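Note to self: user wants both folds in one dump. Writing first protein now.
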Amino acid sequence: MAPLRFSANVSWLFPELPGLPARLRAAGSSGFEAAEVGWPYGEPPEALARAAQEVGLQLVLINTPPGDREKGEMGLGAVPGRQAAFRDGLEQAVLYAKALGCPSLTWKIDSTENKRSDPSEDRSVQGGCGSRHEEKGHGKEFGSTGGAERPGEMGSRHDRRAAGRGAPRGRGSEDSRFEDGLHSPLQAHFPHRIHLMAGRVPQGADRAAVRGEMETVFLENLRHAAGVLAQENLVGLLEPINTRITDPRYFLDTPQQAAAILEKVGRPNLQLQMDIFHWQIMDGNLTGNIREFLPFVDEGYKGFVGCEYQPRGDTVEGLSWLRSYWDKRGCPQAGQ
């Protein structure tokens, strides 16, 4: 088995450093090949791109803007009455993705603790060689990436989370370029990725009563997004976020729901972001669910596993698990 490749979610890692550029530099200097940023919009994209380039770091995933956080919004894709704001946010995300060069996928593995809320609004990018891992002192727990009350999903991250395709396709189809490209995050033609955040059930509304309306809005916005993204060779990701611990009001909460929506939309550049943390909480049966939904991700996944967790102490000191993993497998470390 080839060694895992890890990415740093700098929205969570390196909280001891001020600002995303400093966190990106730290991630590259610590040996990560890639990073993901949840909401990079508080920084000029040129500053983020420059910081990443200085340390040879790929920026691989961002989220669409959350909306009005003061009003409790966490994405707008499925929120009735917010279609115009979603589309404006999508345009902004596309501008950032192009400036930052988000070329790869992530398989998000988060940990159960510290996933209840986003550690900071300024959460950043997803990408790299990674898997989500949570520190217990100097120990670790592997989990999966997600995106509610955090940056999302570039989550990631998604997340990871592995990013994949929206519906099974034959390798001879015109969209096989996506399938082939997904196996090589370092290729220049690799499609950039944006997590299209679904958003929350409106405050006070009954989930079952508004589910149909919200799905209709989501489908409409996703079809629009697929067209916009296709023009720029970008890929949109859907990330289910658990409603038992992380975000009780999030609309998209299971891989079953996400896969059904992807099938209805039927666009090859919309894919499923695999966040095992959320999948385990909502349904368990990880082996069965990975087998069932991998066709919506990537059956030959060789991308990054995103590291998304809240460090207990200094981030670099807590990365001993990663250095040990690389040393045992004789892996060269970026930045060294």
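First done. Writing the second protein, which came from a different request thread.
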Amino acid sequence: MMNTKLSLSKTKIIGFTIRLNDTRTRYGRSTISATLSSKPAYSGELKVVKETSGTEPLKKKNASNEDNFLSKIAINYLSKTLRDTAGISSSSSSKSTGYDSLVDTATRVAGNLSIKQQHELVLVALDRAFPAVILSLIKMLLPPSKLSREMFALFTTVFFAWLVGPSEVRETEVNGRKEKSLVFIEKCRFLEQTNCVGMCTHLCKIPSQIFIKNSLGMPIYMMPDFNDLSCKMMFGQEPPEIKDDPVMKQPCFQFCKSNRSYGVKH
């Protein structure tokens, strides 16, 4: 259970506030209270660490141009859930739409919350996005086994391409037995669009690992590769403790705009 308070300098308020005071979730009691600004105060304590990418990324076209109708529904739903959880009103959010809106919301949240609070907020958002009764039913019907791990892997490749991009199921070894329970994401869409190690780690990887384990009873270890932007999702494998996870020592990209412009915590 995480119970934290955030103190931020009150500069340039634009009128939306995170209010998750005394909210009950399946992870315990959540307490987040913060005021977000259009451009968070940058203390200078976050230095640009050595680069993990040698070239500046090209300016990307709108990330939502090629999404189909169902993908756009899923993206807008997740984006709205994250905004609602963070208390960001539609009038105060940016003019971006689709996946760009999701990235924009995530960037603004990451720049104003501590690392633990980022984990907590995403857990609350996911808790609201997925009906508890459905998750409980899945957890009951699919306890950890070779079959359930392979089903989770297949389900991920079919239903979450809109979030992470194209992926495929690959063979791996669990408890000395080979099975097809590893999802390989060729180039993670969220990591590519945010271009930020910190956001990948604290708004996706760690809270997703916690959520899937607690809600579905399925251990999962997500291992992003920050050189080629790929990621491995290994169902059935327990992740290391957060403090011992190699990503916690990973420097961000040389041209991380989120770090430089928004003070995103790494």
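Dump finished. Worth passing along: Confidence is low (pLDDT under 50) at residues 1-23, 29-59.
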